[in-house]
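Data deposition worksheet. Section B asks for the primary sequence of the deposited chain exactly as it was used as input, without tags or linkers unless they were present during the calculation. Section C holds the resulting structure in token form. Section D is free text for depositor observations; keep each observation to a single sentence. Incomplete worksheets are returned to the depositor.
Section A, Depositor: J.P.
Section B:
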Amino acid sequence: MDFRCAFRCARRGRVLAVKTGSNPNSSSLGVDVTLLLAAGVAASLLSLLGGTLVRWVVGRRREKR
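Section C:
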């Protein structure tokens, strides 16, 4: 039997199931990095919203004078 035929004729595997979530036996580095990324995005959005709110309030106070 030829090696090339062995690769072509081999039966292909298939995915039977996909599980989501974290594996308690594995390292939690992936979860930590994901949470740090999400926290960074949240902090950026909060600072943008806070700065916009401050500028809006200060602008309204100046208009009233």
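Section D:
Helices lie at 3-9, 29-64.
Residues 1 and 28 are 46 Å apart (CA to CA).
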